[in-house]
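Subject: for your reference before the review

Hello V.,

The reviewers asked for a structural picture of the protein, and I figured it would be easier to keep everything in one thread rather than splitting it across files. Below is the amino acid sequence we used in the manuscript, unchanged from the supplementary table.
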Amino acid sequence: MNREQRHAGSGPRPAGAPFTGDPSNAASSNAASATQPRAKEVTATGLGPWPGEDPLEAARIIRGELGGPHLPFLAELPDRGVGSDALGRTASLLEELAVDVQPHGWRLVDRPGKDMRRAASALSTDLNVLADVVGAEDVSAGELKVQLVGPLSLAAGLYLHNGERALLDYGARRDLAASLAAGVAGYLSRVAAAVPGARLVVQVDEPAIAAVLAGTIPTASGYRTLRAIAGSEARESWRLVLDSLRAAGAAEVVVSFPEIEAPIDLALSAGADGVALPLKALTNRQWEQVAGAVEAGKQFWAGALDVPAGGPLPEVAQCVESVWRPWRQLGLPPSLLGAIRVTPSEGLAGHTPAQATAVLHRLTQVADGLNQQALG
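And here is what came back from the structure prediction:
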């Protein structure tokens, strides 16, 4: 389906149906937009998780590979252990709520324990190291991205005193969203102090969203599942956190999902500036939603590089085509490619530092390839 057909009111293709758009339709649309000013460049970034335990090495590599116009990020180093995982790091930001690690995972407790203090200490170390690296650079700070777990996946990952997930209890979900919204404001202020003048971008990760909305997360007993969370509650939880991030100085906030049942429109209606999705199993209907979002001025972070467990990385041309082919067949003009940031399809913590570095380099090549398409 091309751009004109979608705007004429035709219904979306069924999920899994092949693309049937005619590239010539895109060409005519491209010609019409040729006189318009070209949009910003396609850029590259990573999703956050990084191998190893050394924040200094990570910061130097990431900022070296993702210099302007690309988007460097504050690495998450789960290899360091408890508190350096995404869930523990985000939980350490909570205001007036405390967590600690129990046999079944992170649990809400009455007062902060050693694990929460360890998570907070690791994050402070990372910010101090980042400040030193940025301070030694000869160029302006440019942009910086940080990541955090969103309120719904946070509620799915934290446990109550009775061993059930916080997701089970409406009051706990509400308190977690409010606590996270308060905590991220202070966190972003600390990030801004570490990289003065940088444009701050925030990636809100919701890895458990499909199960949360479908009601497929098991209870502690395993004999039943937790009730599905209504889309309206999800929207309001996101809106609360996103509004707090913007008030604290975030210039761009993107919500990241796995591709399966990703609630793209729901996140955008909550005020997200865009969505981040791996491309490997994106359906035609989801591509249609992405197209509508891009035309409305939203960002699309495309997980265009499927990182293999071993062996060579995908070729640049293959990754470029994974974006450019559906883009062209949907009738989107090349001038809108600047809405894209290319990312790996997943975090890089399971790879060696050398492999992770190669992934970032390959992503910048993919961005260059897409920019060539934008130039025609």
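For the response letter, the relevant points are probably these. The chain has a mean pLDDT of 90. The radius of gyration is 21 Å.

Happy to draft the paragraph if you're swamped.

O.
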